[in-house]
Amino acid sequence: MSQLPPSPGSDIVPMAATVELEKEKEDASEEDAFKSEKSEPEETTEPVPNPMAGLPPPDVGLKAWLACLGAFCGIYASFGYINVVGMFEAFYLTNQLSNYSASTVSWITSLQIFLLVAGGLLFGPVAERYGPRYLAGVGTCFVVLGVFTTSASTKYWHFLLAQGICTSLGNSMLYYASLLGVSTWFKAKRGFTLGIAVAGSSIGGLTMPFMFSELEPRIGFPWTVRAIGFVLLGMALICTVTISSRIPANPKLPLLDIKKDLIAPYKNMHIWLLTAGIFMTFWGLFVPIGYMSVQGQSNGMSPRVSFYLISIYNGCSVVGRILPGIIADHVGGFNMHAFCTILCSVFIFALWIPARTNPPIIAFSAVFGIISGSSISLFPALVGMVTPVAEVGRRLGMVSFFVAFACLTCMPIAGQILLKDNGSFDGCQAWAGVFMFCGGVTIFITKLTIPGKTWKSRF
């Protein structure tokens, strides 16, 4: 099986075996290719210890696969909850917050996505300093507190604080603890295992709308949300127990070194372009996720069926988050991400915009779930491919911080376009399609700026 080109510095120091000596030579060449990413050398006469010395090998062992299981459960309890923001927004607009516009209500759900993604700037380094398990434990407490407080909320500011802020901070802690764990334990199988982990968000997004639509008419909103909270608690506890990092925790690491973490990486054009490409992709991606149910209801779909659109999307995205990872290990992560993102744009214009009845709307939710899965599952892999493994946590957090502003603004902007167009979804759908196309093209161009890569490279 062919493999993804390994990220620089991501192998351990060899242990006297011939195969390990081969990997040492490979790592040395990779370090030369990415020398421009290193910060300026410090003035010191003491030898610098190799942080990769004595580490267990990647891709094998019980702890590695337990970390993958923990990441799956952690992302179920974090991004899985974020994946149902469209369901909550559609419900609030017809119930507790019916006096507010779609643009105003969308600030709650956009804040959820923003804090989950932007939290990486802080929680990535925290996970490196203290290990992902402690971060996951604290995140579990925030998630449980936020969800149970949401169940008792009745006013706009209640939902903003409980769901938009408290739950989202816990989601972010669980999310980055999960990503750090699985990213450090796997190298050759990184695309595949990240696909498995991120599929947790799809399973969460598949099961929670079913729970909500079946339980809410019977037991009401408060106890339905609490039931979801108990499920999230169980998954978060499994994550806390099983998640770990291949890189030992280092409490001496700074939480944020502006020169090293923010300035030095952006001296490289491929980091700029990668950030811009993911930014534009997310600017388009979350519009269908957030407005799919609302758009269905505006075309005569019943509220119950419209909630199932989220489940259909997330159920199909299980395939879209695992299969592209497997293919990416053969054809390259950048190639696969760019192809799927551009294909998402094609289906938005060709299928979602013309859809006015239930069958094509349902078909779009299924197709979009399959082809958009890689936009989320391969994002951490792309960052890891151009980052030394010991710096994956903080580099992923840095890129995510900038990308988070796309998550914060995409749905309110779409809501304003919807308001200006007097309820017509054509404008905000076109917004999503244009930016997903631009994001895919930018990701492909990013590959061309990486040293030693051409348009033909499997990278």
TrEMBL record:
A family per Pfam: MFS_1
Basic and acidic residues: compositionally biased ranges: 21-41
Domain of life: Eukaryota
Signal peptide from the UniProt entry: none
Alphabetically ordered keywords of this record: Membrane, Transmembrane, Transmembrane helix
Family matches, as CDD domains: MFS_MCT_SLC16
GO cellular component labels: plasma membrane
Family matches, as PANTHER family: MAJOR FACILITATOR SUPERFAMILY (MFS) PROFILE DOMAIN-CONTAINING PROTEIN (PTHR11360:SF319), MONOCARBOXYLATE TRANSPORTER (PTHR11360)
UniProt record similarity statement: Belongs to the major facilitator superfamily. Monocarboxylate porter (TC 2.A.1.13) family.
Identification of the protein by name: YALI0F17446p
